[in-house]
Amino acid sequence: MKVLFLDIDGVLNSKRSAVAFNKFPWDVKPEDIPLFDLVAVALIRKVCKETHAKIVLSSTWRHTVGWERVGQALDLPIIDATPTKINGKRGHEIEMWLERQCTRHPELQTTGITYAIVDDDSDMLEAQRPFFVQTDGENGLTLANYDALVKILGKI
Ligand SMILES: [Mg+2]
Question: Which residues have C-beta under 5 Å from ligand 1, the single-atom ion?
Fold first, then answer.
């Protein structure tokens, strides 16, 4: 199983896209879609196609908009969202999701979960560093970030 933990702000939108389009997207209604960095969205879609990874939403958008709506509106294979840990780092929430997944599906402990994390913030755990790709919130997801994610998740 391959999982991509996806942040939205600073990844699928950026200061760059907000300057270009005059504002940040806050929702996924039809009028919000052009406010995303659609090249970044397409690159994430391509990471999933090339590596067969599914997405777990780690962004606060999981609370404000919901992972189902985000996945549907942006045509991304989002299957779940990370749990919330009050005052916890995002890395802890990702760790919780991975642990729960292994409890629910014991067979995963032997086959393992291959994962990557993409986020503009760096509050990940030390053990997650090798699987973490940090974007620059000014510019959002770049081609180099895309390459790094495909490398971590591995092509099929
Ligand atoms: Mg962010």
Answer: 7, 9-10, 120
Ligand 1 geometric centre to CA of 154 (Å): 24
Express each pLDDT in 98-136 by its tens digit: 999 888 887 777 668 999 999 999 999 999 999 999 999
Q: How far is the CA of 49 from the centre of ligand 1 (A)?
A: 23
Q: Considering its fold, how many domains does the chain have in total?
A: 1
pLDDT of residue 110: 63
Q: pTM value?
A: 0.95
Residue 60 tokens, joined: 């606060």
Q: What is the CATH number of the domain that holds 71?
A: 3.40.50
Domain of residue 103, residue span:
2-153
